[in-house]
Prior knowledge:
By secondary structure, the chain is α+β, with helices and mostly antiparallel strands. It is 32% helix and 22% strand. Strand 10 (219-230) and strand 11 (234-237) form a beta hairpin.
Amino acid sequence: MHEYNPGFALSAPRQGKIALLGYLIESFEAAHKLGLDFVAVVPPGFEVGLQNDGIDAIVWDFDLINDQSDALLQQCLDRNVRVAVPLYEECVEWAGALNARIQNNPRLFNRGLLFRDKAMMKRKAQMSGLRVGVFEEVYNRDDVKRFFKRVNEALMNVDGDVEDPVHLKPTRAAGSVGHCIIRSNKNIDELPDDVFPCMVESHLDGQEFSVEAFIHNGKIWFMNINEYVHLGYSQVLPPGPELEAERAKIRRAVEKLVKAFNMDNGVIHPEYFIDAEGELNFGEVANRIPGGHIFDLIHRAYGFDPFAAQLLCADPQTSDAELIAFFPDEVNGIQGYAGNVMIYPQKPRVTMLDVPEELLSDPLYEKHDMFEPVNAKVAERVGFGNHYGKINFYGDDPEAIKQRLIQWEKFDFYK
Protein backbone atom coordinates (compact mmCIF):
# COMPACT_ATOMS: atom_id res chain seq x y z
CA MET A 1 0.00 0.00 0.00
CA HIS A 2 1.31 3.43 -0.93
CA GLU A 3 1.14 6.61 1.10
CA TYR A 4 1.11 10.09 -0.39
CA ASN A 5 2.40 13.17 1.40
CA PRO A 6 0.94 12.80 4.92
CA GLY A 7 -0.23 16.39 5.17
CA PHE A 8 -1.75 16.57 1.69
CA ALA A 9 -5.48 17.04 1.14
CA LEU A 10 -7.60 18.25 -1.74
CA SER A 11 -8.31 21.94 -1.39
CA ALA A 12 -11.89 21.50 -2.59
CA PRO A 13 -14.24 18.55 -3.22
CA ARG A 14 -14.59 17.40 -6.82
CA GLN A 15 -17.77 17.45 -8.86
CA GLY A 16 -18.56 14.18 -10.64
CA LYS A 17 -16.66 10.90 -10.87
CA ILE A 18 -13.49 9.75 -12.55
CA ALA A 19 -13.46 6.50 -14.51
CA LEU A 20 -10.41 4.29 -13.95
CA LEU A 21 -9.96 2.05 -16.98
CA GLY A 22 -8.34 -1.25 -16.05
CA TYR A 23 -7.91 -3.24 -12.86
CA LEU A 24 -5.16 -1.84 -10.62
CA ILE A 25 -5.57 -1.98 -6.85
CA GLU A 26 -2.93 0.72 -6.22
CA SER A 27 -4.91 3.21 -8.32
CA PHE A 28 -8.18 2.32 -6.59
CA GLU A 29 -6.53 2.81 -3.20
CA ALA A 30 -5.02 6.12 -4.30
CA ALA A 31 -8.42 7.43 -5.46
CA HIS A 32 -9.97 6.38 -2.16
CA LYS A 33 -7.24 8.06 -0.08
CA LEU A 34 -7.49 11.26 -2.11
CA GLY A 35 -11.26 11.30 -1.63
CA LEU A 36 -12.00 11.03 -5.34
CA ASP A 37 -15.31 9.48 -6.31
CA PHE A 38 -14.58 6.91 -9.00
CA VAL A 39 -15.92 4.03 -11.02
CA ALA A 40 -13.70 1.12 -12.06
CA VAL A 41 -14.10 -0.02 -15.68
CA VAL A 42 -12.74 -3.56 -15.66
CA PRO A 43 -12.67 -6.64 -17.92
CA PRO A 44 -15.19 -9.44 -17.25
CA GLY A 45 -14.42 -11.43 -14.12
CA PHE A 46 -12.86 -8.60 -12.12
CA GLU A 47 -16.06 -6.92 -11.03
CA VAL A 48 -17.25 -9.34 -8.34
CA GLY A 49 -14.48 -8.64 -5.84
CA LEU A 50 -14.77 -4.90 -6.41
CA GLN A 51 -18.49 -4.93 -5.84
CA ASN A 52 -18.01 -6.99 -2.67
CA ASP A 53 -15.69 -4.20 -1.48
CA GLY A 54 -18.33 -1.58 -2.29
CA ILE A 55 -16.54 -0.24 -5.39
CA ASP A 56 -18.74 0.79 -8.28
CA ALA A 57 -17.68 -1.21 -11.35
CA ILE A 58 -18.56 -1.28 -15.04
CA VAL A 59 -17.72 -4.48 -16.92
CA TRP A 60 -16.18 -3.89 -20.33
CA ASP A 61 -14.28 -5.98 -22.89
CA PHE A 62 -11.53 -3.62 -24.09
CA ASP A 63 -10.66 -5.97 -26.98
CA LEU A 64 -14.13 -5.64 -28.51
CA ILE A 65 -14.83 -2.61 -30.71
CA ASN A 66 -18.20 -2.57 -32.50
CA ASP A 67 -21.30 -0.46 -32.99
CA GLN A 68 -22.31 -1.13 -29.38
CA SER A 69 -19.25 0.62 -27.96
CA ASP A 70 -21.27 3.75 -27.21
CA ALA A 71 -22.80 1.75 -24.38
CA LEU A 72 -19.67 2.38 -22.32
CA LEU A 73 -20.03 6.12 -22.79
CA GLN A 74 -23.66 5.96 -21.70
CA GLN A 75 -22.83 3.98 -18.57
CA CYS A 76 -20.20 6.58 -17.68
CA LEU A 77 -22.58 9.47 -18.32
CA ASP A 78 -25.20 7.77 -16.16
CA ARG A 79 -22.66 7.85 -13.32
CA ASN A 80 -21.71 11.50 -13.93
CA VAL A 81 -18.16 10.65 -15.03
CA ARG A 82 -16.19 13.75 -15.98
CA VAL A 83 -12.79 12.26 -16.94
CA ALA A 84 -11.46 8.81 -17.90
CA VAL A 85 -7.96 7.69 -16.86
CA PRO A 86 -6.16 4.80 -18.62
CA LEU A 87 -4.21 2.46 -16.36
CA TYR A 88 -2.98 0.07 -19.08
CA GLU A 89 -1.92 0.31 -22.72
CA GLU A 90 -5.07 -1.39 -24.01
CA CYS A 91 -7.22 1.27 -22.33
CA VAL A 92 -5.57 4.37 -23.83
CA GLU A 93 -7.81 4.60 -26.90
CA TRP A 94 -10.91 3.97 -24.81
CA ALA A 95 -9.98 6.76 -22.42
CA GLY A 96 -9.34 9.05 -25.39
CA ALA A 97 -12.73 8.19 -26.91
CA LEU A 98 -14.57 8.75 -23.63
CA ASN A 99 -12.83 12.05 -22.86
CA ALA A 100 -13.42 13.28 -26.40
CA ARG A 101 -17.16 12.81 -25.94
CA ILE A 102 -17.40 13.86 -22.29
CA GLN A 103 -15.28 16.99 -22.80
CA ASN A 104 -16.55 17.66 -26.36
CA ASN A 105 -13.02 17.67 -27.77
CA PRO A 106 -12.51 15.17 -30.64
CA ARG A 107 -8.75 15.79 -30.63
CA LEU A 108 -8.52 13.83 -27.39
CA PHE A 109 -9.50 10.65 -29.25
CA ASN A 110 -7.02 11.37 -32.05
CA ARG A 111 -4.30 11.78 -29.45
CA GLY A 112 -5.29 8.43 -27.93
CA LEU A 113 -4.79 6.82 -31.34
CA LEU A 114 -1.44 8.60 -31.70
CA PHE A 115 -0.17 7.14 -28.43
CA ARG A 116 -1.27 3.65 -29.47
CA ASP A 117 0.03 3.45 -33.06
CA LYS A 118 3.83 3.33 -32.94
CA ALA A 119 4.31 4.14 -36.63
CA MET A 120 1.99 7.15 -36.39
CA MET A 121 3.77 8.14 -33.17
CA LYS A 122 7.18 8.05 -34.87
CA ARG A 123 5.89 10.03 -37.84
CA LYS A 124 4.42 12.74 -35.62
CA ALA A 125 7.64 12.94 -33.61
CA GLN A 126 9.71 13.29 -36.78
CA MET A 127 7.43 15.97 -38.17
CA SER A 128 7.79 17.86 -34.86
CA GLY A 129 11.56 17.93 -35.10
CA LEU A 130 12.36 15.12 -32.66
CA ARG A 131 15.33 12.89 -33.50
CA VAL A 132 14.16 9.39 -34.36
CA GLY A 133 15.63 6.41 -36.18
CA VAL A 134 14.71 5.46 -39.75
CA PHE A 135 11.43 3.53 -39.72
CA GLU A 136 8.87 2.08 -42.09
CA GLU A 137 5.58 0.20 -41.98
CA VAL A 138 5.90 -3.25 -43.56
CA TYR A 139 3.36 -5.76 -44.80
CA ASN A 140 5.40 -8.83 -45.73
CA ARG A 141 8.89 -10.38 -45.58
CA ASP A 142 9.99 -8.75 -48.83
CA ASP A 143 9.28 -5.31 -47.32
CA VAL A 144 11.48 -6.19 -44.33
CA LYS A 145 14.28 -7.44 -46.58
CA ARG A 146 14.24 -4.21 -48.61
CA PHE A 147 14.35 -2.11 -45.44
CA PHE A 148 17.16 -4.21 -43.96
CA LYS A 149 19.19 -3.89 -47.18
CA ARG A 150 18.64 -0.13 -47.50
CA VAL A 151 19.66 0.52 -43.88
CA ASN A 152 22.90 -1.37 -44.29
CA GLU A 153 23.62 0.27 -47.66
CA ALA A 154 23.18 3.67 -46.02
CA LEU A 155 25.74 2.67 -43.39
CA MET A 156 28.13 1.91 -46.26
CA ASN A 157 28.76 -1.63 -45.07
CA VAL A 158 30.85 -3.81 -47.39
CA ASP A 159 31.19 -7.56 -47.80
CA GLY A 160 32.54 -9.05 -44.59
CA ASP A 161 31.10 -6.38 -42.30
CA VAL A 162 28.65 -7.46 -39.64
CA GLU A 163 25.28 -6.20 -40.78
CA ASP A 164 23.62 -3.64 -38.56
CA PRO A 165 20.45 -4.99 -36.91
CA VAL A 166 16.97 -3.56 -37.38
CA HIS A 167 14.07 -3.87 -34.97
CA LEU A 168 10.64 -5.24 -35.80
CA LYS A 169 7.72 -4.17 -33.62
CA PRO A 170 3.94 -4.49 -33.71
CA THR A 171 2.36 -1.09 -34.22
CA ARG A 172 -0.17 -1.48 -31.42
CA ALA A 173 1.34 -3.66 -28.67
CA ALA A 174 2.38 -2.62 -25.18
CA GLY A 175 6.04 -2.07 -24.47
CA SER A 176 8.30 -4.79 -25.84
CA VAL A 177 5.58 -7.34 -26.64
CA GLY A 178 6.27 -8.78 -30.10
CA HIS A 179 9.59 -6.94 -30.44
CA CYS A 180 12.30 -8.90 -32.25
CA ILE A 181 15.73 -8.06 -33.65
CA ILE A 182 16.56 -8.78 -37.30
CA ARG A 183 20.23 -9.53 -37.91
CA SER A 184 20.06 -11.42 -41.22
CA ASN A 185 17.77 -12.41 -44.07
CA LYS A 186 17.50 -15.81 -42.37
CA ASN A 187 15.82 -14.10 -39.39
CA ILE A 188 13.35 -12.52 -41.82
CA ASP A 189 12.55 -15.85 -43.51
CA GLU A 190 11.73 -17.29 -40.09
CA LEU A 191 9.16 -14.61 -39.24
CA PRO A 192 5.63 -16.01 -38.80
CA ASP A 193 2.89 -14.70 -41.08
CA ASP A 194 0.86 -13.25 -38.21
CA VAL A 195 3.43 -10.53 -37.33
CA PHE A 196 2.32 -8.48 -40.33
CA PRO A 197 1.51 -5.66 -40.75
CA CYS A 198 4.07 -4.17 -38.36
CA MET A 199 6.87 -1.62 -38.17
CA VAL A 200 10.64 -1.86 -38.66
CA GLU A 201 13.18 0.68 -37.54
CA SER A 202 16.93 1.17 -37.46
CA HIS A 203 18.99 0.39 -34.38
CA LEU A 204 19.75 3.28 -32.03
CA ASP A 205 23.01 3.18 -30.10
CA GLY A 206 23.56 4.56 -26.63
CA GLN A 207 22.23 4.35 -23.08
CA GLU A 208 18.48 3.73 -22.99
CA PHE A 209 16.40 5.30 -20.26
CA SER A 210 12.81 6.23 -19.58
CA VAL A 211 11.13 9.33 -18.24
CA GLU A 212 7.98 9.43 -16.16
CA ALA A 213 6.53 12.92 -16.60
CA PHE A 214 3.52 14.09 -14.59
CA ILE A 215 1.74 16.77 -16.61
CA HIS A 216 -1.10 19.15 -15.85
CA ASN A 217 -2.33 21.94 -18.13
CA GLY A 218 0.58 21.17 -20.45
CA LYS A 219 3.22 21.74 -17.73
CA ILE A 220 5.59 19.10 -16.35
CA TRP A 221 5.16 19.18 -12.56
CA PHE A 222 7.48 16.30 -11.80
CA MET A 223 9.92 14.40 -14.02
CA ASN A 224 11.58 11.14 -13.00
CA ILE A 225 14.50 9.68 -14.94
CA ASN A 226 14.71 5.89 -14.80
CA GLU A 227 18.04 4.36 -15.81
CA TYR A 228 17.80 0.95 -17.42
CA VAL A 229 20.70 -1.21 -16.29
CA HIS A 230 19.46 -4.04 -18.52
CA LEU A 231 16.23 -3.20 -20.35
CA GLY A 232 13.42 -5.48 -19.26
CA TYR A 233 15.37 -6.86 -16.31
CA SER A 234 16.87 -4.19 -14.06
CA GLN A 235 16.76 -0.45 -13.40
CA VAL A 236 17.62 2.23 -10.87
CA LEU A 237 16.24 5.69 -10.13
CA PRO A 238 17.08 8.48 -9.84
CA PRO A 239 19.87 7.69 -12.29
CA GLY A 240 23.62 7.61 -11.73
CA PRO A 241 25.68 10.81 -11.95
CA GLU A 242 26.46 10.50 -15.68
CA LEU A 243 22.81 10.42 -16.75
CA GLU A 244 21.68 12.78 -13.99
CA ALA A 245 24.05 15.41 -15.41
CA GLU A 246 21.84 15.48 -18.52
CA ARG A 247 18.61 16.26 -16.63
CA ALA A 248 18.20 19.79 -18.04
CA LYS A 249 18.68 18.54 -21.59
CA ILE A 250 16.26 15.66 -21.00
CA ARG A 251 13.63 18.02 -19.55
CA ARG A 252 13.85 20.24 -22.65
CA ALA A 253 13.37 17.16 -24.85
CA VAL A 254 10.32 16.02 -22.86
CA GLU A 255 8.83 19.52 -22.94
CA LYS A 256 9.21 19.44 -26.72
CA LEU A 257 7.49 16.04 -26.80
CA VAL A 258 4.61 17.29 -24.61
CA LYS A 259 4.10 20.22 -26.97
CA ALA A 260 4.37 18.06 -30.11
CA PHE A 261 1.79 15.58 -28.85
CA ASN A 262 -0.53 18.27 -27.44
CA MET A 263 -0.43 16.64 -24.02
CA ASP A 264 -2.54 18.46 -21.44
CA ASN A 265 -3.14 16.23 -18.43
CA GLY A 266 -1.85 12.89 -17.21
CA VAL A 267 1.32 10.81 -17.21
CA ILE A 268 3.60 9.96 -20.12
CA HIS A 269 6.35 7.37 -20.17
CA PRO A 270 8.74 8.14 -23.06
CA GLU A 271 11.91 6.18 -23.74
CA TYR A 272 15.07 7.73 -25.13
CA PHE A 273 18.61 6.82 -26.12
CA ILE A 274 21.55 9.08 -25.31
CA ASP A 275 24.68 8.47 -27.37
CA ALA A 276 28.36 9.06 -26.59
CA GLU A 277 28.12 12.65 -27.90
CA GLY A 278 25.20 13.43 -25.60
CA GLU A 279 22.60 13.49 -28.40
CA LEU A 280 19.09 12.33 -27.50
CA ASN A 281 17.08 10.07 -29.79
CA PHE A 282 13.38 9.50 -29.16
CA GLY A 283 12.31 5.87 -28.96
CA GLU A 284 8.60 5.80 -28.15
CA VAL A 285 6.11 7.08 -25.60
CA ALA A 286 3.21 5.62 -23.63
CA ASN A 287 0.31 7.45 -22.02
CA ARG A 288 -0.24 5.27 -18.94
CA ILE A 289 1.43 3.81 -15.86
CA PRO A 290 4.85 2.38 -16.81
CA GLY A 291 5.79 -1.27 -16.44
CA GLY A 292 8.76 -2.66 -14.56
CA HIS A 293 7.32 -1.56 -11.18
CA ILE A 294 8.77 1.91 -11.85
CA PHE A 295 6.03 3.61 -9.82
CA ASP A 296 7.04 1.53 -6.79
CA LEU A 297 10.64 2.71 -7.20
CA ILE A 298 9.53 6.35 -7.51
CA HIS A 299 7.56 5.99 -4.29
CA ARG A 300 10.59 4.55 -2.49
CA ALA A 301 13.07 7.12 -3.82
CA TYR A 302 10.92 10.26 -3.43
CA GLY A 303 8.32 9.38 -0.80
CA PHE A 304 5.16 10.33 -2.69
CA ASP A 305 2.51 8.09 -4.24
CA PRO A 306 2.81 8.22 -8.05
CA PHE A 307 -0.51 6.41 -8.47
CA ALA A 308 -2.19 9.32 -6.67
CA ALA A 309 -0.07 11.74 -8.71
CA GLN A 310 -1.40 10.27 -11.95
CA LEU A 311 -4.99 10.83 -10.82
CA LEU A 312 -4.30 14.41 -9.74
CA CYS A 313 -2.59 15.24 -13.02
CA ALA A 314 -5.28 13.58 -15.15
CA ASP A 315 -8.00 15.58 -13.39
CA PRO A 316 -8.75 18.96 -15.02
CA GLN A 317 -10.19 20.16 -11.69
CA THR A 318 -6.83 19.85 -9.88
CA SER A 319 -5.38 23.23 -8.93
CA ASP A 320 -1.78 24.41 -9.22
CA ALA A 321 -1.73 24.88 -5.45
CA GLU A 322 -2.60 21.21 -4.93
CA LEU A 323 0.20 20.08 -7.22
CA ILE A 324 2.71 22.38 -5.52
CA ALA A 325 1.72 20.87 -2.18
CA PHE A 326 1.87 17.30 -3.48
CA PHE A 327 5.13 16.97 -5.43
CA PRO A 328 8.63 17.09 -3.93
CA ASP A 329 11.53 18.76 -5.71
CA GLU A 330 12.76 16.22 -8.28
CA VAL A 331 16.43 17.03 -7.59
CA ASN A 332 16.57 18.06 -3.93
CA GLY A 333 13.68 15.88 -2.74
CA ILE A 334 15.50 12.58 -3.26
CA GLN A 335 15.35 10.34 -0.18
CA GLY A 336 17.58 7.62 -1.66
CA TYR A 337 18.21 5.46 -4.72
CA ALA A 338 15.88 2.56 -5.50
CA GLY A 339 16.46 -0.28 -7.94
CA ASN A 340 14.94 -3.62 -8.83
CA VAL A 341 15.83 -6.70 -10.82
CA MET A 342 13.12 -8.89 -12.29
CA ILE A 343 13.79 -12.59 -12.00
CA TYR A 344 13.00 -15.20 -14.58
CA PRO A 345 13.92 -18.91 -14.33
CA GLN A 346 16.83 -19.94 -16.53
CA LYS A 347 15.52 -23.48 -17.15
CA PRO A 348 12.33 -24.69 -18.86
CA ARG A 349 11.25 -26.64 -15.76
CA VAL A 350 11.73 -25.72 -12.10
CA THR A 351 10.54 -27.17 -8.79
CA MET A 352 11.82 -24.89 -6.02
CA LEU A 353 12.95 -21.38 -5.11
CA ASP A 354 16.41 -20.96 -3.56
CA VAL A 355 17.22 -17.55 -2.01
CA PRO A 356 20.81 -17.42 -0.71
CA GLU A 357 21.75 -15.86 2.61
CA GLU A 358 24.24 -13.63 0.78
CA LEU A 359 21.32 -11.71 -0.74
CA LEU A 360 19.22 -11.56 2.42
CA SER A 361 22.12 -10.19 4.47
CA ASP A 362 23.13 -7.52 1.93
CA PRO A 363 22.66 -4.06 3.54
CA LEU A 364 21.25 -2.70 0.25
CA TYR A 365 18.68 -5.50 -0.06
CA GLU A 366 15.13 -4.52 0.89
CA LYS A 367 12.74 -7.27 -0.12
CA HIS A 368 11.75 -9.75 -2.80
CA ASP A 369 8.45 -11.17 -3.99
CA MET A 370 9.74 -14.24 -5.84
CA PHE A 371 7.38 -17.16 -5.43
CA GLU A 372 7.64 -20.91 -5.17
CA PRO A 373 6.66 -22.48 -8.52
CA VAL A 374 3.22 -24.10 -8.59
CA ASN A 375 3.79 -25.71 -11.98
CA ALA A 376 7.14 -27.15 -12.94
CA LYS A 377 6.87 -25.89 -16.52
CA VAL A 378 8.10 -22.31 -16.79
CA ALA A 379 5.64 -19.92 -18.40
CA GLU A 380 6.68 -18.51 -21.77
CA ARG A 381 7.92 -14.95 -21.44
CA VAL A 382 5.86 -12.36 -23.33
CA GLY A 383 7.77 -9.13 -23.86
CA PHE A 384 9.23 -8.27 -20.47
CA GLY A 385 6.34 -9.78 -18.55
CA ASN A 386 5.70 -13.10 -16.76
CA HIS A 387 8.67 -12.70 -14.44
CA TYR A 388 8.67 -14.82 -11.30
CA GLY A 389 9.06 -11.89 -8.95
CA LYS A 390 11.52 -9.09 -8.34
CA ILE A 391 14.21 -8.07 -5.87
CA ASN A 392 14.33 -4.51 -4.53
CA PHE A 393 17.43 -2.63 -3.40
CA TYR A 394 17.74 0.78 -1.76
CA GLY A 395 20.64 2.95 -0.66
CA ASP A 396 22.56 6.17 -1.15
CA ASP A 397 24.89 5.02 -3.96
CA PRO A 398 23.32 4.30 -7.37
CA GLU A 399 26.51 2.65 -8.64
CA ALA A 400 26.50 0.16 -5.77
CA ILE A 401 22.86 -0.64 -6.49
CA LYS A 402 23.64 -1.18 -10.18
CA GLN A 403 26.39 -3.62 -9.22
CA ARG A 404 23.88 -5.61 -7.14
CA LEU A 405 21.35 -5.64 -9.97
CA ILE A 406 23.91 -7.02 -12.41
CA GLN A 407 25.13 -9.59 -9.89
CA TRP A 408 21.71 -11.01 -9.03
CA GLU A 409 20.30 -10.81 -12.54
CA LYS A 410 22.74 -13.59 -13.46
CA PHE A 411 21.93 -15.78 -10.44
CA ASP A 412 19.62 -18.77 -10.96
CA PHE A 413 17.16 -18.67 -8.08
CA TYR A 414 15.05 -21.53 -9.41
CA LYS A 415 16.17 -25.14 -9.21
